[in-house]
Structure formats: C-alpha cells, structure tokens
Design goal:
- It is a single chain.
- The chain is mainly α.
- Helix 4 packs parallel to helix 6 and helix 5 packs antiparallel against helix 6.
- The longest helix is centred in the last third of the chain and has 40 residues.
- The radius of gyration is 35 Å and the shape is elongated.
C-alpha cells in the first residue's frame, strides 16, 4: 500500500509553492465581509427572452412560403379534401380497433402502403406549387385519396374474414 502511495506521489507533480503574501488575510476578509452580491434580475431576463421568442416566431411565420394544397384551389376541392381526410381518419381508427396478433402483419403492410401514398401526395403538392393549377395534378391527388380508402377498406374486409374464420374455428372446437 505504501509503495502505491509513494509511486503515486513520485509520478505526479504537485504544486507545493506557498501562496502570495497576504493571501490568508484577503481570504478571511472575503469570508467575513460578503460585500456586494451580484443579483441577476430574472424578471428582466425573462421579459427579454419572451420578446426574442415572439420576434422569432413572427419572423418565421412571415418568411415561410405558403404551399398550395387541394383545399386551396376551390371550395369544392376543400370539401372533397375534408371528406377524404375525415373518412381516412375514421377508417384508421377502425383499423386500430381490430389490431391483434392475427392481424398485425396485415395492418403493418397497409400502413406502409399508406405511407408510400402519403409521400406520393407530397410530391403532387410540390408539383402543384411549381406548376400551378393543373387538372392532371388535381386528378392524381384525388385518386391518391381514393387509393388510400381502397387499401383501408380492403384491409378491414380481410380482418373481418380472419375474425369470422377464427369464430367458426372456435365454435367447431366447442362442438
């Protein structure tokens, strides 16, 4: 043990110098007389931070380019988009209600397909913003929504078939 300590002290260089003259007195004076304490005014700091945030949000909102979407083209297109979005949202909730070990793979595959269609829809939005209103783009956007609904409806039908098959098998097991 002593060898380890001797080795430690011999390998490391320590500062053995005496402090400057009067160090102990200055230290005692500071301990006895705390003097002026720096108090940061948190109230002013929080107000300044709030102002900076507000200015930042305002600048960010004013500098973001507006993107056209299907709903921005006309009131009828807005109604169409709202219908599809609401229906897809409802179908997704319905799909989640039926999630189980038997249906997990089917649901995950459907969600992957929906993600691909969502990416494709974002491409159409970019195209709409670059080229302006074109019937072809609007048709593709609506068709994209229809494909999503088709996928969801097909998956719900498959899930119902799986449930019916499981119910029939359970009934046969009881007989």
């Amino acid at each position: 043990m002593e060898d380890n300590l001797d080795t430690f002290f011999s390998e490391n260089k320590f500062d053995f110098h005496e402090p400057h003259s009067g160090h102990a007195e200055r230290f005692q004076r500071k301990l006895n007389n705390p003097g002026k304490v720096n108090k940061t005014s948190w109230k002013w700091l929080s107000v300044a931070a709030s102002v900076v945030l507000l200015v930042g949000f305002w600048l960010g909102a004013n500098q973001q380019p507006t993107q056209l979407d299907l709903a921005d083209l006309s009131p009828k297109m807005e109604e169409t988009q709202n219908y599809f979005v609401a229906t897809i949202h409802h179908e997704l909730k319905e799909l989640e209600k039926h999630r189980s070990l038997d249906t997990e793979v089917i649901i995950e595959d459907a969600l992957e397909e929906l993600e691909k269609l969502e990416d494709r829809y974002k491409y159409f939005i970019d195209e709409l913003n670059q080229n302006g209103y074109e019937k072809r783009i609007v048709y593709e956007m609506i068709n994209n929504y229809q494909q999503r609904l088709e996928i969801l409806n097909n998956v719900i039908q498959q899930i119902e078939e799986i449930k019916n098959t499981n119910t029939i098998q359970k009934d046969e097991a009881y007989i």
